[in-house]
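Please predict the structure of the following assembly.
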Amino acid sequence: MTIDDTPGKGAPRSSAHEIERYGGLFARRTRGMTSSAMRDMMAVTARPEVISLATGLPDTTTFPAEDFAALMSRVAVDSSAAALQYGPTDGLEDVRRCIVEVMAAEGTSVEPDDLMVTTGGQQVIDLVCRAFLDPGDVVVAEAPTYPGAVPCFTSFQADVVQVEMDDHGMRIDVLEATLATLRAEGRRPKFIYTIPNFHNPGGVTMALERRRALVRIAAEQEIVILEDNPYGLLRYEGEALPTLYSLDGGRYVIYAGTFSKILSAGLRLGWAAAPAPILERLNLGKQAADLCSSPLNQYFVSTYFAHRDWRRYLGELRAIYRRRRDVMLSAMEEFLPHEATWTRPGGGLFIWARLPDYIDTTDLLARALRENVAFVPGRAAYLDGRGGSELRLNFSGVGEDDIREGVRRIGKVVAEQVALYGTLTGAKPAAPAAQVVPLRRREAS
Amino acid sequence: MRVAVLKGGSSLERTVSLRSGARVEDALARLGHDVLPIDVGPDLVDRLRAARPDVAFIALHGRGGEDGTVQELLELVGVPYTASRAGACIRCMDKVVAKHALRDAGIPTPEFYAFSQAAFSDLGAARALPAIEERLEFPIVVKPAGQGSALGIKFARTAADVPGALVAAFSYDTKVLLERYVDGRDLAVSVLESEDGPIALPVVEAIPQTEDFYDFEARYEIGRTRFVCPAELTPGVAARAQELALATWETLGCAGFARVDLMLAGDELTVLEANAIPGLTDTSLLPLAADAVGIGFDEFVARVLDLAVDRAPA
């Protein structure tokens, strides 16, 4: 039996209608933001039995609970009414002084007036997009780029051009060629987004001469640089390199910093340092977004800086993460097949690995989840479909035993796929592989 | 009644399942039932034994929940449950089993060949690939046998793409199929059981947005695909799609509700697969198709629950 109210009975054309509720109301720019199968898969990684090397989480268990309690109660006693009140959009003066101190630790000199407190470093990316991007505007980013920046760029309908990196960061020769191509097309990027220190996800650090070149190019071509530096102070070896902001002298560089990795991600406090006219625009955007970042949390920061030694805690975090990085690198040596390559970061939280072309890391994640281990598939870090055989591993979020066990499980499933491919092709697994074309290029009929 | 809503779990469709489950819970509460939400995990049997629900509404999708596993457990524990029994769930979830059953019953389904991982590792199946590729003609669709969503489905344009596509599909299951590609329109027919037997709901068409590229992931993703109901079809084609959906339902032995996915190329309809527990979210096709014929979500949930309670134990 069938129901009579089917197209067969009436005039099909007029009776057909879209069944998505609200579908006609959503803004066109939200189309690129829909939940993807990959994000659904990531939901499984949060289950307790899964060793997740997929997060970017700092280890907050290292912060002494008694310090947290004492400092918060001091905030309550000393600043109750103000902490519970709205605050200035650009942040509390005391917090901006703390930021001056943090940036000085990396050799960058800045004044409180050059700064604005934001809701995490993430908000700086959003505010810069708000201030600079019209639909279709070009943004240059690294390939791969920070997966968390991708939805920002997409929601502002940016045309993102990604420039390859090598062990010394963004390749300036490729950048120059890219800019020349764009110029020939009559297009000028609005800004270049870069993470020069211990790149997320790439794990590499931009060399000094490239920093100089990048700043020079930005000034010559009048392009803004958004320098995202969440990990600069998480350096496990060697000396800090000058920030782009300091090399540029505050003309074309917007600097994004954060308390997330040196104190607490739960505070959701970061900052922007930028030339005054840009800072004004960012401030207007922030007024629209959230008026101000939590004064309560800002009072916690200023109290913490006044009564505790932030450098000492940072030193403890560095020691913990350095050990975890070393454990992960040696586990990768031990468990990953020789076809895999990966970066050896001198700091930060991430290692970026590349597998043979015939392994799709999005699919590999499904297999890895059955072994209760997770990573971030490389495609999340590209806007152009590249990165299919790459993956990101985080070494800060779980303990040393879990890191080793997690890498062992990943090694097992990678080895399994290498062997299967060998069987399928009858060739040595390391032979040049055919690119698998996902079914995504079929146009509407 | 005390109704356990089983949702979440560790399948790759966990997110959708949590949304389906939440919506079912709201409907059950409005219907006056005592609702017990359960995010299924290792403590499932203990929780069911402790809570002793009168019936379980299964809002799980994918591995574990849609493949007969949870259904078998509920039979053991003695809790009546919604939708298809374990046998039909197994037949729907395993595309290879489903397609064999369809083919044997004379229901058109795109030509296919299925392989287990062991066939390649132990029996040299790779040697047979060229012959298969010749029979199916490129492009060929490579699918894991038991993955409910679009994950792992690849499109091989040439022989060189096939090994990589197989490696990807084997990430999801130990069994995969190579299927002839049908270049046509995507249709879905939901089927709902009633006192008079199964009823085919109006045909829904998934139309990819012209400015977007089309991929399997986008197929049921709001925003990248438009869903039109009833689909713009000739009366004959629409009726035939519904007939095929009902025949598929009968062949696989479904109960309660299910969704059958079809392709339309020219006037030719083929059945791709059946979903024993399709999505029940605000934007899922089955509830929307039911709504189109005046069956609201609460009524749908009430009907499905009554059928489960009335059903004799296996």
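The first helix of chain A runs from residue 12 to 15. Residues 1-15, 428-445 of chain A have pLDDT under 50 and may be disordered.
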